[in-house]
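Section 4.2 – Deliverable D4.2 (structural model, holo form)

The reporting period included a commitment to supply a predicted holo structure for the target in complex with S-adenosyl-L-homocysteine. Inputs used:
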Amino acid sequence: MQIDILTIFPEMFEGPFRHSIIKRAADKGIARIRIVNIRDFATDRHRRVDDYPYGGGAGMVMMIEPISRCIEHLKQESEYDEIIYLSPDGDLLDQRMANWYSTRERILLLCGHYKGIDERIREHIITREVSIGDYVLSGGETAAMVFCDAVIRLVPGVLNDETSALSDSFQDNLLSPPVYTRPGDFRGMRVPDILLSGNDREIEEWRMQKALERTKARRPLLFGPEPGEGNP
Ligand code: SAH
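Output (structure tokens):
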């Protein structure tokens, strides 16, 4: 899989993808992230990527020309499964959507800034809009990082047995049960005896019970009807 991220702040991505699971995925050649600087596709000599909004008002708007040229250039290599604009009014990212994108081959993520991007890009170039939550960020970069993290860890072969995604929250419409590690007793706060019992079947039952309790208490709506097949 390859995810191309279009941004006017490429430096923001220098840290987050160089560690942990995303790095491992890249090292194994399973999932590659490429950062593309939109400014490299600006047409004027000031390498301008934003301009004042028509009709007036505060804030700048990202221009259509550099973004359109950039995407046309990248499309020469091969088509994208999806061209995504990260936007607070897009479809909400959830585990189901992350699973869906983990099976795609090539995705483009466009990060907006300032007041957002010229509407014509959204109408004619973008194929999907995705939000990471009902709040407004100052740029799409952090949203792109969240998207990549949630999706790439689900690509087969990225996680090993130890970190398997199958037991994660939401993966089976259940939240994760509590987990513990040493010491067994910290200032009188004890790990539940069952986990020290060595009885695998009972431990499994206990975990299922806790997952159900937690889901009922915190996310009862997860028990709703199964959504249909296809692109969530
Ligand atoms: N004026 C716009 C917000 C612009 S925020 C509005 O009210 O809808 C600047 C950029 O941050 C956006 O172009 C988008 O790419 C990104 N962004 C902000 N909040 C986001 C969210 N919740 N999810 C995904 N991207 C977001």
